[in-house]
Amino acid sequence: MKTEWLRNTIKDFEPYYVAPIAEKYVINANENYFNVLSIPSLKKELMEALDTFKPQIYPKPMADGLRKALAEYTGQAPENIICGNGGDEMITYLLGTFLNPGDQILVHTPTFDMYELGAETLGARAIKVRDLAGYRRDKEGILEAVKKYQPKITVICNPNNPTGDLLPASFIEEVLKAADNLVFVDEAYMEFAQKESVLPLIKKYPNLLVLRTLSKAFGLAGMRCGYLAADKEIIDAIGKIKAPYNLNAFTQLFAPIVLKHREEILRVRDDIVKERNRLFDELVKIPGLTVYPSCTNFLLVQVESKHEEIFKALKAKDILVKIYRNSGELPNAYRITVTTRDVDDALLEVFRKELS
Question: Model pTM?
Answer without folding.
Answer: 0.96
